[in-house]
Amino acid sequence: MSNPPRNLWRSTGAIVLGFAVVVPLSLGTDQLFHVLDVYPPWGQPMWETSDNLLALSYRIVYGVLGSYLTARFAPHDPMKHAMIGGAIGFVVSAMGAVAAINMELGPLWYPVLLALTALPCAWLGGILHRMRYAQR
């Protein structure tokens, strides 16, 4: 096990990179849809099923992309890194779902599905990385 501190920093960096891509993309897309009046103004509940499905769909795509990048930049064991990122995403999303219970920001199924898709997205990002780099 050579250079464990370096690998720890690279592992942490790979996972942080995934979130550093997913969070701004998600919030930036949200902002775009608010500005375009697709979504209601910030701070108002979003009850429309179509709006929530739209938000879930791009968050799934961004989650897969973030997990792919985490796997791509992991110093070793890319799938493990992608799944660790997915587990963190699951925990954060599950906490958001619990917090949303009393906040009435929209339907409860949205944050629940956001949490439930975190690990499958991470797995898919890891698989896409494996497929891409198995061809080399």
Offer a few descriptive terms.
mainly alpha; elongated; 136 residues
Radius of gyration: 16 Å
What number of structural domains do the residues give? 1
Beta-strand portion reads under 5%
The total of helices stands at 4
Could you tell me the mean pLDDT? 94
Short description:
With 136 residues, the protein is mostly helical. Helix content is 78%, strand content 0%.
Q: How would you describe the overall organization of this protein?
A:
The protein has 136 residues and is mainly α. It has one domain (4-134). 78% of the residues lie in helices and 0% in strands. It contains 4 helices and no strands. The longest helix is centred in the N-terminal third of the chain and has 32 residues, at 4-35. The model has no long low-confidence stretch (mean pLDDT 94).
Present the secondary structure layout.
Blueprint: H1 4-35, H2 49-73, H3 78-100, H4 109-134
Helix pairs in contact: 1-2, 1-3, 2-3, 2-4, 3-4
